[in-house]
Amino acid sequence: xxxxxxxxxxxxxxxxxxxxxxxxxxxxxxxxxxxxxxxxxxxxxxxxxxxxxxxxxxxxxxxxxxxxxxxxxxxxxxxxxxxxxxxxxxxxxxxxxxxxxxxxxxxxxxxxxxxxxxxxxxxxxxxxxxxxxxxxxxxxxxxxxxxxxxxxxxxxxxxxxxxxxxxxxxxxxxxxxxxxxxxxxxxxxxxxxxxxxxxxxxxxxxxxxxxxxxxxxxxxx
Length: 221
Prior knowledge:
It contains eight helices and no strands. By secondary structure, it is an all-alpha fold. It has one domain. Helix 1 crosses helix 4 (about 85-100) and helix 2 (about 40-50) runs parallel beside helix 7. It starts with a helix and ends in a 9-residue tail after the last helix.
């Protein structure tokens, strides 16, 4: 098979694997009930407070995030960024699928499930962004900010996580007088997810990028 086609096969494989890991990780984290991952806390908290459909609300939030990317990029914006909209729809459907599939009770396995969820969301995020196709809108926003301010993705992800948790807490206190969906696991996730992304990229990004044909030319010879 031609090398270029092999590169594209690897690229799609890594991208789709990352996407599945991300959706699976979100649902596993929610199931563990120790506090949701920060980057979904806002819409998951709203869905819990007002009884709204989580995947549908996630889609609406992702539309807002795509709009923010357009604003931040300014003249560097591209209509290609709008392809994140159908991506957001697909990801929302995956959340619906895994949400319906994962209905068992943790039965004392909440901590291992939560750790698995954080690992999956972090690795899934790193894989999908590295392939430079279509990041999920949350990661796309983090990547846009990282490029604009010259920081690594993991650091920006940590800052975004803190902002999401703060917004979720504010909404919960204003609406029902208590903090919703934020728990000890959320705080652990805030610390770990950005570091997991950093470590994963440190050990695997160059290997994946070379196989997918997205590494700098000097490393592909």
